[in-house]
Amino acid sequence: MKKSIYLLAAVLFLTACSNKSGTEAKPASYDDLVSQYEKAAKADAFNEKDYPLVDKQIVDLINRFSGGEADVSHKTIDLDKNGTDELLLGTKVQAGTETLTLYLGAFRDQDGKLVDLLKDVRGADADLFFQFYDNNRLVVDKATEGEVATIVYELTDKGYQELLYQGADVSGDLTDDGQLVTKDREGNAYASFEEQENKLKEVLGHDRTEQIIE
C-alpha cells in the first residue's frame, strides 16, 4: 500500500512538471522586441497590454524623430566587447541630403530576460538625444525645464554607468566667452567652453564626431 502511494505521488509529480514545462512562456527574443516596437510605432493608439515589451517613451521618440513615418531601425552589436550582442533600436532621420540612423533604445538579453539598458537614463519630461560609440561610450544630450546637460556613460555588466556630467542652468550666468556656465556633478564650474570640450574629449576618448555607431 505504502509503495503504491509513493508510485502515485511520483506519477503526479512528473505529470505536474510536464504540464508546467508545456505551459511556460518562451523567453522573448530580440526579434520579438523589434516586432512589438514596429507594430506599436504604427498603431493609432498605444495600449500597454498589447505590447508588453514596449516602453511608450521610446515609441514617442521614434515617432518624433522619424517625422511621423514610424519607421523602426535596429542593430545587434557587442557594445562592451564581452562576446554577447546587445540590441540597438531607433529610427531613420533625414539630415539634409543624408539619411542617418538615430538609436533611441538599448537592450540586453540577460538570462533569457530582455533588459532595457536605458530605463534609468531616460527621464520623464526630458528631450533626449543619444549617440553610441564603437569604444563602448554613450553620450546623452538631455534637456529638461531649465537645464541642459551632456552625460557620458560606459556599459558594464551592471548596466550603464556615468563617467561624466556637464550641466548648465539655462537661466544661469555666462562665462567670459559668452557660454552658459557649465558644471560637473559636484557643482564645479568649467572656466571656459574650451575646458569643457577638452574634458568631454578626454572621457569620450576621441572627438565627438568620431567612432559613432551607424
Please provide a written account of the structure.
The protein has a 5-stranded antiparallel beta sheet with strand order 5-6-7-8-9, with helices on one face. It has helices spanning 2-23, 30-42, 56-65, 193-204, and strands at residues 73-77, 86-95, 98-110, 113-116, 127-133, 137-144, 147-156, 159-169, 182-183. 27% of the residues lie in helices and 33% in strands. The termini are far apart. It has 214 residues and is α+β, with helices and mostly antiparallel strands. The chain folds into 2 domains: 27-119, no CATH class; 123-213, no CATH class. The longest helix is centred in the first third of the chain and has 22 residues, at 2-23.
Strands, helices and their partners?
Layout: H1 2-23, H2 30-42, H3 56-65, E1 73-77, E2 86-95, E3 98-110, E4 113-116, E5 127-133, E6 137-144, E7 147-156, E8 159-169, E9 182-183, H4 193-204
Antiparallel strand pairs: 1-2, 2-3, 3-4, 5-6, 6-7, 7-8, 8-9
